[in-house]
Structures are given as structure tokens and as C-alpha cells.
């Protein structure tokens, strides 16, 4: 299981990504034996990441409640009940909060980045604590107000920043610092989605770029501890409720065919994120651009309220086969555009759930045509599409499969179709030398 370099051509451990894949940050041979002190830091990181993730989700729900009177259940239902005018006003307000908030935060904290990928792959795992926690809070507030971005960016950032501060206190070397920061980021995500194994694999396959038993143990420990800690505040339940899906030859054949198409969609999605990131405003732009872009998203949400939020409700609708083909086509085009535009405006947020939503829309749309020729459970189409696009977009096939199984609490019936689809998507994305949605956002050196 221990491995050397993984990914595309031209990678190096200094943090530079090649055309495809992830940088190989920490090889097993780079990390000396983990001391008792390091394991104490692992436990502390898991506990802190769990509490931070839970606290951020409380802030997110508070923002959603104040903006849309949201209490529980479907966020989309609260958005629809709020009415068209309120959606536009809410998104304009979210843009104002994003622009002014991040401008004030930069003024208050001074220079320094607050991107997990940049910190791990370029800055030796160092993250400024005040800047990172402030960015995390602003991120979940804007997502709670309806920004078309993922919620996982905030707990990932908070977990990594807290681990970085613990590393400063313990005076860890670079390899151990990067390992602990990556574990903190994975734990932050694991606790808010209740995906301890998926979070650990995300730490290894995406953030460290290597699968190794030695590195897996601290990743598993931090994610499990953080998830258990978060249960004191957050509900212990699957993110998506999936109707029962039995073994199906139709789904297996569908997966073989949809995999390459999902790979192409993922390639387009990653390139869209790259363009958005490269055109983020400078100077006074970050103060104004979020207000303008978010207002446009709010106007689009008048006929398409599904655009607001991270896309969780879109995925649930596709799993329940509640979206007609014309709406699937519209959302498949508009949701990625709204997310990329929001990111390109200078706002901070995640891409995990928007990526899953894009794949679920693709799978559901293709499945509606497929089922006329060879019937199969509709929910299976959405899960297969989501896993394939997620795997190719993250350049992490194993993590993507496990994450989808944990998010839906599905184990046996969909395993083979998921692997078929993920394999096809990965082959296409690798053939086209596609980086991941995380490494593509690294600043140019």
C-alpha cells in the first residue's frame, strides 16, 4: 500500500502540480516514526476539528434561519417559501457580506493566505489562525444565505489552521506539520458530513497524494475522533436518503457507458474552475465583484430556486427522481456556472457538494433516457453519475467511491456500477491531463 509518487507527469514534493493529479507531498519514507507527542497532537487535532466543524454548522444554520426562516429539513423548501424578491435581496446581501467581510478581514489580519491547498502544497502546512477562522466563518455565513458554494471549505480550513497552530506550539518539522495539517483538513470535512473513512481517504489521496499505511493511521484517527466529537451537536444520519437499490445489470451497463461522459464533464468543470480562479478580481475588485455576481445568481434563482445553496437538495431530488428532464438540463448548465462565478468573484467556499450535484444531474438526465430502453432504479443513475464526476474532478477514485457510499449509507448493490463508472471517468480525465479541482486553484509560481 505504501507508495512513492502518484499522479500525472512532472510532479514534485515541493508542492508543484503537474498537468494532472496531486502533488506528492509526504512520502512514507519522509516521515520518521510517529512519536507519542505527535499522537497527542493527532487526538487534539481531531477534538478541535470536531468542535470547530460543529460550531461552523451551527453558524450556517443560524444564517439560513435569519435569511429564509429555515429550521430543518429541505433548505430548498425554505427558499421557495421565501419568495422571489427575498431571494434576490438575500443574495445581494450575501454578496455585500462576502465583499466587505473579506476586505475587512484582509485589512485586519494583514498579508497571508487562507487556502488549504496552497498552505499544504506551497507553504509547508502553515496557515494564519485568525485569517483562516475568519474566512471560515464568512464562508459558512454566505453559504447559509444562499451562495452557490460548498459548505465543506470552512471546516476543512478551520481544521487545517488549528492543526497548523498546534504544529507551531509543538515545533514540528515540515513533514509532520504537513501531515497534521492535512489530517486536520480531512477531519473538518469528515465531521460535518459524517464520513470518517471518506475523510481519511480524502486526506491521503487528495491532500497528501499518496496511500500509505503509516500515514493512514493518523488520518483515520483524526477523522474518527472529529466525527465522534461532532455527534454532540450534529445529527448522526446520512447526508442523502437513498431509496433501496437492488443489484441491477442495467445499472452496471449504464455505468460503463456513462463513465467516459462523466469524465468529459469533470474535465470541463475543472477547466471552468481554473478560468474562474485565474480571473478573480484584484485591488478593490473583491469588494464589489461578489455583490454583482451574487445578485445575478439571485436573479437566476427567481425561476430556478434550486441554484441557491451548496446543491444538497438538488442531489436529493435526483435520488428521488423528482426532477423533469428540462429542469435537469437547465440546472446542469446553470449550477456549475453559478458556482464558478461565485468563486471567481473572490468569495471563499467549497466545491465538494456542487461537484456531486453536477454529477447527479448528469446521471439522472442520462438515466431518464436509458430507463426507456432498460429500466433500472432511478436513484442508481444519480449516484453513479455523482461518483464518476467527483472522482475525475478530485483525481481521487478510491475516496470518491467511499464518500458516495458513506453519504448514502449504501454498501453492496451499487459497488460494481460505481467502480465501472469511476474507472471510465478517470481514464478520460487522465488521458486529457486534467488536474484536480484543488490543485488547479494553486497560485502560479
UniProtKB/TrEMBL annotation:
Q: Which InterPro entries match?
A: Cl-channel_core (IPR014743), ClC (IPR001807), ClC-type_chloride_channel (IPR050368)
Q: What is its main location?
A: membrane
Record localization? Membrane
Keyword Transport part of the UniProt annotation: yes
Q: Where is this region: Disordered?
A: 1-23
Q: How does it sit in the membrane?
A: Multi-pass membrane protein
Keywords from the UniProt entry: Chloride, Chloride channel, Ion channel, Ion transport, Membrane, Transmembrane, Transmembrane helix, Transport
User: Pfam families in the record, alphabetically?
Assistant: Voltage_CLC (PF00654)
Which stretches are transmembrane? 38-63, 84-105, 179-203, 215-234, 246-270, 282-302, 314-334, 346-366, 378-404
Q: What is this protein called?
A: Chloride channel protein
Q: Which organism is it from?
A: Streptomyces andamanensis
Amino acid at each position: 500500500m505504501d507508495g512513492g509518487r502518484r499522479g500525472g507527469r512532472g510532479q514534485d514534493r515541493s508542492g508543484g502540480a503537474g498537468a494532472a493529479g496531486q502533488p506528492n507531498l509526504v512520502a512514507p519514507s519522509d516521515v520518521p516514526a510517529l512519536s507519542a507527542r505527535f499522537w497527542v497532537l493527532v487526538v487534539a487535532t481531531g477534538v478541535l476539528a470536531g468542535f470547530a466543524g460543529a460550531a461552523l454548522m451551527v453558524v450556517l444554520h443560524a444564517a439560513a434561519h435569519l435569511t429564509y426562516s429555515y429550521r430543518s429539513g429541505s433548505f430548498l423548501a425554505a427558499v421557495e417559501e421565501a419568495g422571489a424578491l427575498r431571494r434576490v435581496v438575500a443574495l445581494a446581501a450575501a454578496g455585500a457580506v462576502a465583499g466587505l467581510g473579506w476586505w475587512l478581514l484582509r485589512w485586519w489580519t494583514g498579508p497571508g493566505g487562507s487556502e488549504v491547498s496552497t498552505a499544504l502544497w506551497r507553504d509547508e502546512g502553515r496557515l494564519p489562525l485568525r485569517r483562516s477562522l475568519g474566512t471560515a466563518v464568512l464562508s459558512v455565513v454566505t453559504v447559509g444565505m444562499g451562495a452557490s458554494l460548498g459548505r465543506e471549505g470552512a471546516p476543512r480550513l478551520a481544521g487545517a489552521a488549528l492543526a497548523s497552530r498546534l504544529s507551531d506550539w509543538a515545533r514540528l518539522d515540515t513533514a509532520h506539520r504537513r501531515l497534521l495539517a492535512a489530517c486536520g483538513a480531512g477531519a473538518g470535512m469528515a465531521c460535518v458530513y459524517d464520513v470518517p473513512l471518506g475523510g481519511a481517504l480524502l486526506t491521503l489521496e487528495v491532500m497528501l497524494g499518496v496511500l500509505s499505511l503509516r500515514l493512514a493511521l493518523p488520518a483515520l484517527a483524526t477523522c474518527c475522533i472529529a466525527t465522534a466529537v461532532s455527534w454532540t451537536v450534529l445529527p448522526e444520519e446520512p447526508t442523502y436518503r437513498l431509496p433501496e437499490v437492488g443489484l441491477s445489470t442495467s445499472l452496471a451497463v449504464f455505468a460503463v457507458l456513462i463513465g467516459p461522459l462523466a469524465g468529459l464533464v469533470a474535465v470541463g468543470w475543472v477547466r471552468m474552475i481554473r478560468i474562474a480562479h485565474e480571473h478573480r478580481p484584484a485591488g478593490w475588485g473583491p469588494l464589489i465583484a461578489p455583490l454583482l455576481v451574487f445578485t445575478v445568481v439571485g436573479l437566476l434563482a427567481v425561476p430556478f430556486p434550486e441554484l441557491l445553496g451548496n446543491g444538497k437538495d438538488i442531489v436529493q431530488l435526483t435520488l428521488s427522481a423528482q426532477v423533469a428532464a428540462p429542469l435537469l438540463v437547465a440546472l446542469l448548465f446553470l449550477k456549475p456556472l453559478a458556482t464558478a462565478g461565485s468563486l471567481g468573484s473572490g468569495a471563499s467556499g467549497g466545491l465538494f457538494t456542487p461537484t456531486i450535484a453536477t454529477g447527479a444531474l448528469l446521471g439522472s438526465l442520462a438515466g431518464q433516457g436509458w430507463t426507456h430502453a432498460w429500466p433500472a432504479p432511478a436513484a442508481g443513475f444519480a449516484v453513479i453519475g455523482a461518483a464518476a464526476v467527483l472522482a475525475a474532478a478530485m483525481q481521487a477514485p478510491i475516496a470518491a467511491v467511499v464518500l458516495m457510499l458513506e453519504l448514502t449509507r449504501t454498501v453492496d448493490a451499487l459497488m460494481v456500477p460505481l467502480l465501472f463508472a469511476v474507472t471510465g471517468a478517470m481514464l478520460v480525465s487522465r488521458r486529457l491531463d486534467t488536474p484536480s479541482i484543488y490543485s488547479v486553484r494553486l497560485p502560479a509560481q
